[in-house]
Amino acid sequence: MSAGAARAEEDTGSASRRSLRPLALALPALVLLVAVIGIPLATIVLRSFNDPEWGFQNYVWFFGTPVNLVVLQRTFTMAAWVTVVCVICAYPYAYAMSVAGPKIRLLLTLCVLIPFWVSGVVRTLAWMILLQDSGIINMVLRAGGFEGIRLIRTQTGVIIGMAQILLPFMILPLYSVMKGIDLRLVQAARSLGAAPPRAFFSVYLPLSLPGVYAGAIIVFILALGFYITPALLGGPRSTMLSTLVQNQVLSLLQWGRGGAMGVVLLVATFLLLALAGPLMRQRYKLAAR
Amino acid sequence: MNGLREQRGAAIELSRVSKAYGSFKALDDISLQIQPGEFMTLLGPSGSGKTTTLNVVAGFTEVSSGTLQIGGSNVVGVPAHKRNIGVVFQHYALFPHMTVGRNVAYPLRLRGVGKAELETRVRRALDMVKMADFAYRYPSELSGGQQQRVALARSIVFDPPLLLMDEPLGALDKKLREWLQLEIKRIHRELGTTFVYVTHDQEEALVLSDRIAVFNRGRIEQIGTGHDLYDAPETLFVGRFIGDSTVLRGAARSDGSSTALDVAGETVTVPRRHRDTDRPVMLLRPEKLVMRKPGVDRSDNENRLSGTVSEAIYLGSGSKYEVLLRDGSTGIVRSSLTDQSFAIGDAVELCFRGADAKLLADDSTADTTLT
């Protein structure tokens, strides 16, 4: 309580003077962001309205073409699936990291980070080798007397590949939240009569949710814009919006239509975040206490 | 909930309990019987085994050997959540994502208590710790003392026959601690539950307890009331740990009915024999020592030691003096306001009746464990 009071005092004390200093520290990054993200983004938005001529024709085309809407919906569905797979795989892993001794923790951390350091293209190619019809997975299945399954050029294959590549973005925020959870709270729950599963669901899980949300947002947004993996692992039935954008811009030189697709994706993402925001903020507030 | 106050605490019996971590014996053959409704304090320095004992009773730690009975049934191997014991932790352990009310309701929800009864019982428990106005606050909005009161309410709301408290006041300042000690005493009286309380603070143990078990190095040195431990310590460790004391060491001579110690050239005599195997020491409580100017008021059956006042502490109700004795050890004397006062540097004699000195076996660990 006293610590909180002290903090509040500090905040109000010299707020005006303090507010500018962090801005100065962020300046180099801000310049870079404006240069490499802001300007191109503005250009794209502009082109979606003025290429080939001023007007809404690119948006009219986008929403008037059924395949675009199918792909847009599929993009969100696949990103959602990737997020779900990542949560399921990352949660126990991050938990293990947070409770392990220093040596095992280092090993687990390296296992997360090393694939992270390998380029996404290389990893996608590796997945092609694993997933293709004559690939390792199908070879093993056939050797075991099972029928081979089709993985490459399917949505399942794309989801597997994307989930693996995005997994670190889920594990790391989860881990940072979990290592701050006091495990003695779980012990307290046990002493009050909670069997281990109940203690987990009523105490540990709610306290770890901020990490789940943080990781889920990062993974979901990255998955929405993923290009290489769906392009290489996917087939016509698993095309995502990024592939359509690439097609319009590089093959058909329709910068306006590509730009409109990009803007639609951006706006849809913002809408989704705006919907998830209030829920998450509340959870954050409670868990931060 | 029994309408009549027939709810009683559970008896606890630890019998020859040991707990080893590799070669380290956290508990070494502990036996302890606690009566129903008793307030038992486990007292000792850190690492002495008192918290391990509590964890064994709570079910957080399994014993290596020995038996543990709670309320007459053997609970070795019974997991913590099935033991129906309230536990209060030093670090409060309130659930940060639940309000005070939900925290206190938690054990009742686990037990499937209906809504109406749940609300009554939560309110009653919060009333008991005087926190009823805070039911909708979150733990982070409360002070340490308030959090600990809520934790206490949460651990008694389901009427456990046994309440364990692990240094519950350890993180609080002195004034608050003293007030909460009285609150805990009151709640113990009102509930009739068996309390087992762990602390390293001997004053706290004396304030609260019916009986105290003094732990040292994984063993129980002595079990008794505060009075027993202060007036009749069985080991030097207990004598040093409870209250102030002066310890005299020296070459011992024993003749049939008495023992004499040669303390740096001065002889003191106790009218008792020491056991042949022991190296005897004498332990004296501050109020059994009288301080005088050298050479005044000699009486024959009085032991005398000369020394120099090295510290004079005014306590309001009297004074406490530390006296540097000839052999380099320190004597502690308490005097009332009416007694003659002394200044640092005064040469004095410490006088005591031999019968007031405890004759104990020397134990070199008694000093090292205390610091």
Automatic annotation (TrEMBL), chain A:
Residues 72-276 form the ABC transmembrane type-1 domain. Keywords: Cell membrane, Membrane, Transmembrane, Transmembrane helix, Transport. The keyword Transmembrane helix applies. Pfam families: BPD_transp_1. SUPFAM superfamilies: MetI-like. The chain crosses the membrane at residues 23-49, 69-94, 106-130, 158-178, 199-228, 260-280. It is found in: Cell membrane. GO terms for cellular component: plasma membrane. The keyword Metal-binding does not apply. GO terms for biological process: transmembrane transport. It is a multi-pass membrane protein. Belongs to the binding-protein-dependent transport system permease family. CysTW subfamily. This is ABC transporter permease.
UniProtKB/TrEMBL annotation, chain B:
InterPro entries: AAA+_ATPase, ABC_SmlMolc_Importer, ABC_transporter-like_ATP-bd, ABC_transporter-like_CS, Mo/tungstate-bd_C_term_dom, P-loop_NTPase, PotA-like, PotA_ATP-bd. CDD domains: ABC_PotA_N (cd03300). Belongs to the ABC transporter superfamily. Spermidine/putrescine importer (TC 3.A.1.11.1) family. Part of the ABC transporter complex PotABCD involved in spermidine/putrescine import. Responsible for energy coupling to the transport system. SUPFAM superfamilies: MOP-like, P-loop containing nucleoside triphosphate hydrolases. It comes from the Bacteria. Its EC number is 7.6.2.11. Keywords: ATP-binding, Cell membrane, Membrane, Nucleotide-binding, Translocase, Transport. This is Spermidine/putrescine import ATP-binding protein PotA.
